[in-house]
Amino acid sequence: MAGVPASEKPTVALPAVAREVEQFVSAAGWNQPPQLFALVPTTDLLAQQPELAGQLDPLSSPLTPIAQDALPSDQLDRALAGIVWPEVVRGCALAQEIVVLPPEAEEALSEEELDDEAARRFAAEHPQRREARLVAAVLRDGSAACVLRLRGSVEVPEEVVEHPELAPNLTHALLETLKP
Asked: Per its UniProt entry, which superkingdom is the organism in (predicted)?
């Protein structure tokens, strides 16, 4: 893609798209179910729906997230395993609320042999848990971007963390949905 402006390279735009998805989901507040988005080239979307020209700018946003039907929060892994995207979809993003534990609690949890339900209870009842919204976005070329918004409280301010490797298992599962 030599000679193509960075704004037109989807891989470069992926972190911005992940932030856009997080901001979109944030507008509805907390306690939202998992939400899946198809990431399609904005130019392709405009070719199919020219009436969107006033709302979308392919130079500033080469990828457009399109919200999909609701996903089950209790069997998210199974739902993702059954998804296959058409070729027009360049990538996908998933927004979900999670509980984040401090490192020492994560270590204690990994040392115990708990089933999924017991692990959820442990996390939900831990006094240092933090609620968070995680957005993981991936492209067919294997690139990933993640945004984590830690919910604030009276004692702790809200924080936003970005790193492509925040959720390697989730990004791997999303990449699997993009395989032909």
From this structure: Bacteria
Tens digits of per-residue pLDDT, 48-57? Answer: 888 888 788 7
List, for residues 121-142, the tens digit of each pLDDT value. 877 777 778 899 999 999 999 9
Token pair in block for residue 145: 């971007």
Burial-class residue 14 by CB neighbours within 10 Å (0-12, 13-18, 19+). buried
**Residue 156 buriedness (CB in 10 A; 0-12 / 13-18 / 19+):** exposed
Strands of the chain (E only): list them: 35-41, 63-67, 91-100, 130-139, 144-150, 159-162
Note the pTM of the prediction, 2 decimals.
Answer: 0.84
User: What is the separation, in whole angstroms, between the first and last Cα of the chain?
Assistant: 23
